[in-house]
Amino acid sequence: MTCEFLKACSADPMKFLGEWFVLLPALVLLMAAGAAVVMRNLIHAALCLTLSFIALGIVFIALGAEFVGFVQLLVYVGAVAMVIVFAILLTKPERLTKSVSAFSGLGPAGGAAVGFVVLAALLGFIFTSPLAKKPLPTPASAPVADIGQALMGDYVVALIAIGVLLTAALVGAAVIAMEDKP
Fold first, then answer.
1. Contacts of the segment 27-36: beta carbons below 8 A, 24+ positions apart
2. Is the whole model's pTM more than 0.70, yes or no?
């Protein structure tokens, strides 16, 4: 068994490294996303979410979607995750109290049951959709320059709206964190 593994590694080491360059970040992605869901400390959960964003960007790059991977790293890690962390850090601890909802008494088992029901419903909708029966289109290989032209041309309003939304989130966190003066 070990000899076959070593023969496979020595026959094509770049293929072996390429597979591990996808599998290892994918494993980190799953572990960090799971940790972000179950962590009780909000800051640690946000940092685990940031780690999962980084791992997802690396997976995209390893799979050959360099533009999507770098956008993932720049936008989600550089902007969204940092806004989340700053919003948490700027919010007063007494404002982060637990709220009582209809599902608050279910506990972890109830949450897992609700999660599985939602997952089953989503998978049911996906596999029974008429779009699932259509063949996949051939992937278009658009150069990065064309994507940049589209972002600065047809989609510039959406790009600016996202920037305004992120800025408003940060300003909102600062307003919440401000001291209330009598």
1. 28/52, 28/55, 29/55, 29/56, 29/59
2. no
Instruction: Report the pLDDT value the prediction gives residue 146, as an integer from 0 to 100.
Output: 80
Q: Residue type at 59?
A: V
- The amino acid present at 72, given as its one-letter code, is Q
- Could you say which architecture CATH assigns to the domain 2-93+142-177? Up-down Bundle (1.20)
Q: Using one digit for the tens of pLDDT, what is the confidence trace for 145-177? A: 787 888 888 889 988 998 898 788 878 777 776
The HSE-up count of residue 146 (CA atoms within 13 Å, CB side) is 4
Q: Are 49 and 82 in contact (CB under 8 A)?
A: no
Distance, in Å, from the CA atom of 149 to the CA atom of 136, rounded to the nearest integer, reads 26
pLDDT digits (tens, 9 = 90+) for 85-118: 777 777 666 655 555 666 666 677 777 788 889 9
**Secondary structure of 111-174 in HEC code, one letter for each residue:** HHHHHHHHHHHHHHHHHHCHHHHCCCCCCCCCCHHHHHHHHHCCCHHHHHHHHHHHHHHHHHHH
Q: Please answer whether residues 55 and 68 qualify as being in contact, where contact means their C-beta atoms are separated by less than 8 angstroms.
A: no
Q: How far is CA 176 from CA 65, 83, 171, 179, in A?
A: 39, 14, 9, 8
Domain range summary for the chain, segments of one domain joined by +: 2-93+142-177
What's the rounded mean pLDDT across residues 104-133? 82
